[in-house]
Amino acid sequence: MSHIPLVDLKAQHHQIAAEVAQGFAAVLENTSFILGKEVAQFEEAFARFSGVSHCVGVANGTDALELALRAAGIGQGDEVILPANTFIATALAVARAGATPVLVDCDPDFQLIDLRQAEAKVGKRTKAVMPVHLFGQAAPMERVLELARPAGILVIEDAAQAHGAKRQGRTAGSFGLAAGVSFYPGKNLGAYGDGGAVLTSSAELAKKVRALRNYGSEVKYHHPETGFNSRLDTLQAVVLSAKLSRLAGWNELRRGAAARYHELLSGIGGIDLPRTLPGNEHIWHLYVVRVPRRDEVLKKLQAAGIGAGIHYPVPIHLQGAFAHLGHQKGDFPCAERAAEEILSLPLFAEITPEQQERVAGELRKAVG
Ligand SMILES: *Cc1c(COP(=O)(O)O)cnc(C)c1O
């Protein structure tokens, strides 16, 4: 029986292959590999798509978050509040900017940042909160802003999983001072290698990130500050532009596929289906169910050729990289319980009803 991958990047490539080949040929011909005009064109289009004034392309999503924090003036001695149930990069970006990640739990229903806990963690050193739009749906941003604004705390969004997701009609990544986006190949908008972007409607912050990504320089060979080499490759911009024009349609197909999983899996004992926070337009980066004896279920699915995965098996506070924060098991029970039960099912725009039926059938069997 054929394997059903978690994400099928080949199916997507086939749709844009000709356009990418043509775009690559043009870049190769004029050798504008670094910050060619295709980068600026993509930045403009993605800013418009995301409902912000500026997009600055960088080397990856982790850098996007770090550069956004640095451009916002966050560093040594500052604290940034973020959820414990996220990909390691959210916390790494904060640490690499020189600040201290302050972790909070998630809510049990949607696995989004718990704002009551966030409020309790606000102190004199709190400079920013970094909500994560996890699995393709926005965090409750109206509550994030309610918490941040009166306290003078900055909001930097981790929008790495939320390209085009909306909350109350507004695009994820457009709520705070800035957002970091990832174009890792498996994301809803993915490059053919690493890529990322900072989104912002602040001209000042955009200007700072443009300098930071380019050795801290606005004028060639003049470096008033310490910067980085973190630019979005011109070739990646070609791929991203080709995909961006199709992204809304692909997100719609993912929504249809998620609805089909809901139908196929509802009412089966032992399978807890993902929920959408009211007011959200979900883009289903991942379709994450919760099951008991998850590791056993995952093994059975993999043996049956189903490319299910876990996002993520270890919360930030139990990672060796952040042991120095001094947390222990039991500190964030919702995040810990989620890490033990979550299971991501294959989901991509081109997944067929037959593939989904097979996934659902095997899952039903595996859960027993
Ligand atoms: C993918 C991802 C990142 C990091 O992006 P990279 O491009 O891999 O550096 C950050 N945060 C979250 C939530 C992600 O899923």
Can you tell me about this structure?
With 368 residues, this protein is α/β, with parallel strands linked by helices. It folds into two domains: 9-241, Type I PLP-dependent aspartate aminotransferase-like (Major domain) (Aspartate Aminotransferase, domain 2), CATH 3.40.640.10; 246-367, Aspartate Aminotransferase, domain 1, CATH 3.90.1150. 41% of the residues lie in helices and 13% in strands. The protein is built from eleven helices and twelve strands. The strands form three sheets. A seven-stranded mixed β-sheet has the order 1-9-8-5-4-2-3, sandwiched between helices. A three-stranded antiparallel β-sheet has the order 7-6-10, with no helix packed on it. Helix 3 (61-71) crosses helix 7. 49% of the residues are buried. The chain binds pyridoxal-5'-phosphate.
Offer a quick outline of the entry.
With 368 residues, the protein is of the alpha/beta class.
Keywords:
11 helices, binds pyridoxal-5'-phosphate, 2 domains, 368 residues, Aspartate Aminotransferase, domain 2, alpha/beta, 7-stranded mixed sheet
Can you lay out the helices and strands and say which pair or pack?
Layout: H1 9-30, H2 37-50, E1 54-58, H3 61-71, E2 79-83, H4 88-96, E3 100-104, H5 115-121, E4 126-129, H6 141-151, E5 154-158, E6 166-167, E7 170-171, E8 178-182, E9 196-200, H7 203-212, H8 234-265, E10 280-281, E11 287-290, H9 294-303, H10 333-341, E12 342-345, H11 353-367
Parallel strand pairs: 2-3, 2-4, 4-5, 5-8
Antiparallel strand pairs: 1-9, 6-7, 6-10, 8-9, 11-12
Helix pairs in contact: 1-8, 2-8, 3-4, 3-7, 8-11, 9-11
Pyridoxal-5'-phosphate binds at residues 60-62, 86-87, 89-90, 132, 158, 160-161, 182, 184, 194, 196.
